[in-house]
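Hi,

I'm pasting everything inline rather than attaching a file, because the server keeps stripping attachments. The sequence lines come first, and each chain or strand is labelled.
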Amino acid sequence: MREMRLLSTSGILGYGFPEASLKAGLERGVDMIGVDGGSSDPGPYYLGSGTPFASPMAIRRDLRLMLRAALSARVPLVIGTCGGAGGEPHLALVAQMVREIAREEGLHFKLALIHAEQDKATIKRHVAEGRVRRLGQLPELDEATVDRAERIVGMMGPEPYMRALDAGAQVVLGGRSSDPAPFAAVAMRGQMPPAPSWYAGKMLECGATPSIPKGHDCLHVTIDEEGVTCEPTNPARRCTPLSIANHSLHENSSPIHHVEPGGLLDTSECRFEALSDRRVRITGMQWTPAERYTVKLEAVEPVGHRAISICGTRDPMLIGRIDTFLDEVRGAVRTKAADFGVSPEDYSLIIRSYGHDGVMAEREPVHEIHGHELGFLIDVVARTAEQAGAVLAMARTNMLHTDFPGRLCREGNMAFPFSPSDIPVGTVYRFSMQHVTQPDDPCAMFPIEYETV
Amino acid sequence: MTRIRDLAEVCKSKNAGPFDLTIDVVFRDRALFDHVQETGVLNAALFARLYKVEESTVLFTPYPAGCAFKATLPRLVSAGDVGDTDVYGAQQHAPLLDVDIPL
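And the predicted assembly:
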């Protein structure tokens, strides 16, 4: 029976993996080495700022091992959502690292870069042509939202990867991609049917996460026409039918219906069979092609500038009246900020109380405070960095000095652990699109560049 | 009183994309999953009440193959927006821990 063997090194490029696990994977035999390079999970900042959320030092370490391994095994190295968010600066960062490592190691290959960042004119044209529709709570996409975006990426499917591999690329770096796409691309290009190819991608995009104990490590997956076989390459980990089944819960809205660019992966009829105490075979997955091919749009827009300060109180009288106290602080800041020309519409002041409702905010079901101390995060977001710093300084002073009935701690209400106490954080972004568009064809929004390294 | 924290193997929350929160409760085997399902305690209405959202916005899916229940519902604000307390959505599971399952 024909089969394809794919190796994923970890959940994210730069999260690290044991070198021995990569070696063990190569010894089992591989047709491709890959990794998912990104996620929207660390929040909107990284897409907005053009920076990675994993450190360049850690990304470089993982890349070096993977490049050496793929070139020596003569199999493609395929990386999705490069640089964490998959925009132009993210892809450029990883591409530059690949060139530098290749020079240092004396490696030569054909490199493909697949771009995913979208220009605003194209997206506006798609809006005008009625190709874009909303997926969730956000309203229909309009021109103003496109204009406000700091950066827009499209989430590519496997087709651009297949095209790059068809062109002979040995190393393929993709911008923003559906997480399973790089793996599904290699499998489908190897004549495997879509259902097991996508299912394998779903497993591989998180590295060894579908195994126990969980950890950042390598996963080896064999795909054939009937199903998928998963095995972690580190002997300390095991895949079990339950660990594999439960991976379908991870970061999905449904454990059985997975919407992808060209269709729907349905895992409701999956059967899980232990081939050994650490190897699991999965069959019964189904793929239904979509009537229309869609590409998800991801974008962020700037909302202001942040400054924060951290402090805590150990005073029981203050803790006993904390809600009133915080209201008084907010009121004093409102008045004094207006005095220096910053009106309430120019900023938001949020005082998080850790030990009270700092983690769940208005969803916190527990209202009484049981601890003997409370921690505070004073969070100011304003139109400009200067305004944020000014409002924060006033809030910090009023947290420290606001008087209250029965106050014994007359020199100050708060312990500040740092000097300076006020920390400028930079630009704050928010996710601004939750929409899909219909491209002319699956590769139309994702141009490919080739170079000889 | 048999609470979820005493019965479940896993009780966790996480983002499902930047706009939704997804909560999973996993039991050790199919027999226990079936028992829990028969009590009818875990359903969309429970999650709507615990997380203060409209029931129509809760996608509730029993997942027998994984001995698990999943509920996906809107976040208070999108991940990382002003006012968010939990960018990854990884610490929003606690209200479920004390839910009583009358076995």
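Chain A has a mean pLDDT of 96.

If the labels don't parse on your end, tell me and I'll reformat.
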